[in-house]
Each structure stands twice: as structure tokens, then as C-alpha cells.
Amino acid sequence: MRNVNYIDIPSLLEARKRIKSSNVIRYNNKEHQVSEVTLNKLKGKKYYIKTHGCQANIRDEETLSGLLSSLNMERSEDINEVSIIVINTCAVRENANNKVYAEIGNIKHLKEKLNKDKSKDKNQDLILILCGCMVETKDTLDKLINVYPYIDIILGTHNIDDLITLIDSYLENKGKNRLVDVSSKEGDVIEDLPTKRNNDFSAYVNIAFGCDKFCSYCIVPYTRGKERSRRVEDILLECKLLKEEGYKEVILLGQNVDSYGKDLKDYTYKGNKVSFATLLEEVAKLNIPRVRFLTSYPSEFKDEVIDVIAKYDNVMNYIHLPVQSGSNSVLKRMNRRYTKEEYLALVDRIKAKIPNIALSTDIIIGFPNESNEEFLDTLDLVRKVSYSSAYTFIYSPREGTLAAKMEDLTPYQEKVKRFKELTRVLEEGIEKDNLLHLNKIEEVLVTGVSKTNEEYLSGQLENNKTVNFKGDKSLIGKLVKVKINEDKLYSFNGELVEK
Ligand code: SAH
Ligand code: SF4
Ligand code: F3S
Asked: Residue 10's pLDDT is what?
């Protein structure tokens, strides 16, 4: 008989029973068994996590961290001193995958070195765990399993809560078997998993998981599963606790926040059906200094959301509104469900009610067979909207998506040329937008030390842009007033005027 220890993480068995009966399940800090061997082996040891990809993955990193901390492990940024390495992967574009393959290659050398140094129990000295979106597509998973035998545990995006059980089983087997757990449980919303936040001033709060949109280029619906909303009570509880802990900002997360609640069939909150606008208003009323949300989907963005942003000062005047393309024919091939005209009409309604709104966007250049005329439509839209910032990508075919099967005769060099031209036009708008902020005094959330100069701090303006200014590290996590005095295009320099 193995010795049994209890630590404070949810019971998987209990959870699985409930999954059968309901979509939204609660874990109330149930106990879960972990062997004495595992606890003793890992207690006081260190773990390293590298996260790629979007905010959904960053939030998952905090859960992975919480689970590993519950084994009394400590986080380290030095890969050479740790017992567990977790690589939290992204599959959205080919170069995201390639970065991970290179990383795993480097870890192979680390493992070989350790194995040379010790002969006994050698497989257990460094456990390599791969999780995140890359392991959710069949071809990539096959490659990971076949080409990289030294990955010890593979964990799907729906299986994060199994992390401890897997580590326990792996060690119980003395590292002899590698474990792969990518079984889909995509109907679940699992509450109350332990969390160790990356900072103590700005927090991501999931409001919905997955995506049902199936844009033809995008892998996310395949890696994250169908859309599942959390209940309003659970979201508000998480936000209230964050407020009590002194957080200055919450960022509500969903691949498409505007469809929040649509899957909660018979659910009501205070007797009413819920929508993103009603949720946003409830969160705004908690009086956390800053509330943001990501990401909005143009055709589902309701005017009620505009009203909530306009009504509450603590809802930041910033909307990330990905357009992807300004051409109606490309939008159709992308399976985006709006036209250029509808998008521009929405932008007009937003600007009419919130004159100082900052808009950012995502644009894909070189979607299969994008013609020059189609590209020019995108430039035209970009000129009309005048974004304050933008994320631009060259189309990357993803195996298993519809677009990957489309004919694409546009030469890559042409795509690169269009990408540069798009950047130039976007920057005209950014320059115009930056002028509105120059010489103004604005509120800034101090997020850390500047990446380029130790003596400078970095902070975030209401419009989500960075401003660097001289100041003491003790201000990190505080809201301060900064005078903006230099425009660096993608950021500003400023000077602290009031703490
Ligand atoms: N849910 C969000 C973001 C999803 S992924 C939304 O719908 O906007 C983030 C961005 O990556 C997308 O907005 C898109 O611009 C880009 N992207 C997704 N798939 C891509 C692909 N195959 N090639 C290039 N860019 C892609
Ligand atoms: Fe991908 Fe489209 Fe869903 Fe965004 S809305 S995650 S781009 S499928
Ligand atoms: Fe990447 Fe997955 Fe996010 S594919 S962008 S980490 S949802």
C-alpha cells in the first residue's frame, strides 16, 4: 500500500462525476490524493514555466503555477536549476510552433547532461511537460510524440487540472512511462483551481473559454474547444477577491467576449438573461480602478456595450476590435461575419458616443489569393478608422483549417511588400493619435521597470500604450500621474508629476 497524503486541490473523481450531469461545475477545494514519494521528492524543488501565445495561455500559466505551488515547489527563471520544466505552447502561426521545437531541442541537451551525471533514477531528475494549444492538433501531437521521446508528460488545454495526478503517476512509475493526456472534456468549466498570479496589480479574469466562430484561417476553435461561459457569480467573486487584494486592474478574457452567456441556456442572473454588456456593467460597479476586456467580435459588438463604456469611468476607453481585412471578398473567405461597411458603421457609432476612444486591431495580410485590390480595401479601411495601435500578421496556413486547403497564388514576396505598406499606413494613424496625448497629464498604471533602462519605469495609459518615465521601483503596481512629453511611435516618454 502506498502512503497517501492530502493537499488542497480539487478532486478529479468528484469533478468527473459532476461533468456528466452539468456543464458548469464547481470545485470547492476538495482534497486530492498525492503520494508521499511525490511530495517528498518535489518539496522545496523548483519549476520553470515558459508561456507562448495569447492572454488565455498567460492565465493558464497562473493555474499551472498554482498547482505546482500546492506541491510546495518554487518558481525559478533559471532553467538549469529546476526539477520541472513546463512549456505552455501556442499554435496560432507556424513560427509559434517553430519556437517551441527549438526550445525542446535545447532541453534535450540539458537532460542528456543530467543523465550523464547520475545513473540512478535518471529519468526523474528533470521532468519536461508540454501543454497548451500545440498538443491539441493531431499532426503536431504525433510529431511531438514521435520526434521528441524525452518529453515526459503531454497535457491538453482541457486537462490542466490533471497536472498533479499526471506528475504523481509519472513518478510512481519511476519515470519509465511517458504520459499523454489530451482527452477532450470541452464541455466543462472548472472553477476554483489554485492560482498563483504573475503580479499583484493587474489580473486576467476568464469570462468564457473556447470559440465557435471558426474563422477559416484560425486554429483556436480546434485547440480550445467550443464556447463555454463562466457564471456571473463566479466571475464577480473572482473580481471581488482581486479588489480586496488591492488589484488596480482586471482584464476580462474571452476569444469573443461579445458572445458571452449565449451558451448558458436556462441561466439567469438576478432574474435576467445575461449578455456581455450586463456582465461588464456588474464588473464596473465593483469599482476596481481599471476594467478592460479582450477580444471583441465586430458583428456581435452591441451598442449596449458602448453605453457601459461611456457610463463608467473605470471601464477604460479602449477597444481591441480585430478587423482582419478591409475587403468584403476576403472577409467572406475568412468566414468573418461582417462587411467593411458594417465595421466602419460600428466604429462611427463608438466614436460618436466615446469621442476619446482608442481603437486597436488585428490584421492578416496575404490571406490565400488576396489580390492587390483586396489589399487596397484594407488600406482604405485603416485610413478611415485611424487606429491607435495594431497587431499585423502575414497569413500562416494551419493544418486542419479550411483556409489551409485554399489555393494561394500570391507570391510571398508580394505579401511582405504589402505588409510593409500596411505598417506605413497604420503608422500615419498612430502618429495622429499620439499627438492627442502629447503634453497631456494622464493616469498611468505602473507595470514594471523599463526594458531598456533600469532607472526608468514602464506604465500603461488608458489607451493601453506604454509610457516610460523616471521613478522609484516602489511605484510598481500603483496608479500615478505622468506628463507625456515625447512620442516614440509605439510608446511615449514622460515625467512623473504626482504619486
Ligand atoms: N479571438 C481573437 C484572436 C485570436 S488569435 C479574435 O478573433 O480576434 C489572434 C490573432 O492572430 C487573430 O486576430 C489573427 O489576426 C491572427 N491569426 C490567427 N490565425 C492566423 C493565421 N493562420 N495566420 C496569421 N495570423 C493569424
Ligand atoms: Fe479564431 Fe475567429 Fe475565434 Fe478569433 S473569432 S479565436 S480569429 S476563430
Ligand atoms: Fe495561441 Fe492558443 Fe492563444 S493557439 S493565440 S495560445 S488560444
From this structure: 37
Identity of the residue numbered 275: S
Q: How far is the CA of 470 from the centre of ligand 2 (A)?
A: 39
Of 181-195, 249-263, 333-347, 429-443, the least confident? 181-195
Instruction: Please count the residues of the chain.
Output: 499
Mean pLDDT for the stretch of residues 36-51: 91
**Three-state DSSP class for residue 291:** strand
Q: What would the CATH number be for the domain defined by 202-435?
A: 3.80.30.20
Sequence ranges of the domains in the chain: 3-181, 202-435, 441-498
What is the Å distance from ligand 2's center to 338 Cα? Answer: 14
Cβ neighbors of 332 (< 8 A, separation 6 or more) are: none
Does CATH place domain 441-498 in 2.40.50.140? Answer: yes
175 close to ligand 2 (CB < 6 Angstrom): no
**Do 202-435 and 441-498 come out as alike in CATH topology?**
no
CB 57 near ligand 3, within 6 Å: yes
Ligand 2 pocket, 321 CB below 6 A?
no
Q: Which residue has the cell 501565445?
A: 53
CA-proximal residue: ligand 1, atom 8 (nearest): 322
For residue 362, give the ligand 2 atom closest to its CA.
7
> Three cell numbers at 201?
496589480
- Does ligand 2 lie within 6 Å of residue 490's CB atom? no
Pair 122, 115: CB distance under 8 Å: yes
- Write the class of the CATH domain 3-181: alpha beta
Q: Which residue among 136, 256, 332 has the greatest number of ligand 2 atoms within 8 angstroms of its CB, and so is best to mutate?
A: 256
Query: Do 361 and 416 contact (CB within 8 A), yes or no?
Result: no
Sign of CA dihedral 350, 267, 212, 295: positive
- Angle of helix 372-385 relative to helix 340-353, nearest 10 degrees? 10
